[in-house]
Amino acid sequence: MMRKPSLRYITVHCSATQASVDIGVCLIGGTDKALQAQDNFTFAQRKALFGLITQLQHQFEIKDEDVRGHNEWDSGKACPVMVINH
User: Which segments of the chain have a pLDDT < 70?
Assistant: First the structure.
Protein backbone atom coordinates (compact mmCIF):
# COMPACT_ATOMS: atom_id res chain seq x y z
CA MET A 1 0.00 0.00 0.00
CA MET A 2 1.38 3.40 -0.99
CA ARG A 3 1.23 6.26 1.49
CA LYS A 4 -0.36 9.49 0.32
CA PRO A 5 2.23 12.24 0.07
CA SER A 6 2.21 15.11 2.48
CA LEU A 7 2.26 18.45 0.70
CA ARG A 8 3.11 20.88 3.46
CA TYR A 9 5.31 23.47 1.80
CA ILE A 10 4.73 26.04 -0.91
CA THR A 11 7.98 26.85 -2.68
CA VAL A 12 8.95 28.39 -5.98
CA HIS A 13 10.25 25.58 -8.20
CA CYS A 14 9.44 26.95 -11.66
CA SER A 15 8.06 30.45 -11.41
CA ALA A 16 6.33 32.54 -8.79
CA THR A 17 3.09 32.44 -10.76
CA GLN A 18 2.99 28.63 -10.86
CA ALA A 19 4.25 27.87 -7.34
CA SER A 20 0.85 27.92 -5.66
CA VAL A 21 -0.82 25.54 -8.11
CA ASP A 22 1.95 23.13 -9.14
CA ILE A 23 3.60 20.20 -7.42
CA GLY A 24 7.37 20.07 -7.84
CA VAL A 25 9.20 16.74 -7.72
CA CYS A 26 12.98 16.58 -7.37
CA LEU A 27 14.85 13.73 -9.08
CA ILE A 28 18.56 13.61 -8.26
CA GLY A 29 20.92 13.07 -11.19
CA GLY A 30 20.60 13.86 -14.85
CA THR A 31 24.09 15.21 -15.43
CA ASP A 32 27.46 13.84 -16.39
CA LYS A 33 30.73 14.55 -14.52
CA ALA A 34 31.04 17.92 -16.29
CA LEU A 35 27.48 18.77 -15.13
CA GLN A 36 26.10 18.60 -18.66
CA ALA A 37 22.57 17.29 -19.08
CA GLN A 38 22.51 13.50 -19.48
CA ASP A 39 19.73 10.95 -19.10
CA ASN A 40 21.52 8.65 -16.67
CA PHE A 41 18.71 7.81 -14.28
CA THR A 42 18.47 4.25 -13.00
CA PHE A 43 15.51 1.95 -13.55
CA ALA A 44 14.70 2.26 -9.83
CA GLN A 45 14.64 6.07 -10.08
CA ARG A 46 12.34 5.96 -13.10
CA LYS A 47 10.04 3.45 -11.43
CA ALA A 48 9.83 5.58 -8.27
CA LEU A 49 9.28 8.79 -10.26
CA PHE A 50 6.50 7.43 -12.44
CA GLY A 51 4.91 5.70 -9.44
CA LEU A 52 4.87 9.00 -7.56
CA ILE A 53 3.49 10.87 -10.57
CA THR A 54 0.70 8.30 -10.91
CA GLN A 55 -0.09 8.54 -7.20
CA LEU A 56 -0.21 12.36 -7.32
CA GLN A 57 -2.38 12.28 -10.44
CA HIS A 58 -4.94 10.09 -8.69
CA GLN A 59 -4.87 12.06 -5.44
CA PHE A 60 -5.21 15.48 -7.07
CA GLU A 61 -7.08 14.51 -10.27
CA ILE A 62 -4.26 15.67 -12.54
CA LYS A 63 -4.65 14.90 -16.24
CA ASP A 64 -1.79 13.30 -18.18
CA GLU A 65 -1.40 16.40 -20.36
CA ASP A 66 -0.85 18.52 -17.23
CA VAL A 67 2.22 16.54 -16.15
CA ARG A 68 5.27 18.42 -17.42
CA GLY A 69 9.00 18.55 -17.02
CA HIS A 70 10.80 21.64 -15.71
CA ASN A 71 12.10 22.27 -19.24
CA GLU A 72 8.53 22.79 -20.46
CA TRP A 73 8.15 25.77 -18.10
CA ASP A 74 11.61 27.24 -18.65
CA SER A 75 13.31 26.73 -22.02
CA GLY A 76 16.68 27.43 -20.39
CA LYS A 77 16.39 24.23 -18.33
CA ALA A 78 17.29 20.75 -19.57
CA CYS A 79 15.73 18.87 -16.67
CA PRO A 80 14.40 16.31 -16.44
CA VAL A 81 16.40 15.20 -19.55
CA MET A 82 13.79 12.53 -20.25
CA VAL A 83 10.36 12.52 -21.80
CA ILE A 84 7.75 12.78 -19.08
CA ASN A 85 4.53 12.98 -21.06
CA HIS A 86 4.06 13.01 -24.84
Answer: 1-21, 85-86
State which amino acid sits at residue 85.
N
Looking at residue 17, what DSSP letter applies? T
Tell me the pLDDT tens digit for each residue of 12-35.
666 655 555 678 888 888 889 999
Cα gap 58→56, rounded to integer Å: 5
Q: How far is CA 72 from CA 34, 44, 48, 75, in A?
A: 23, 24, 21, 6
**Helix (H) and strand (E) counts for the chain?**
1, 0
Q: What are phi and psi of 65, to 5 degrees?
A: -70, -10
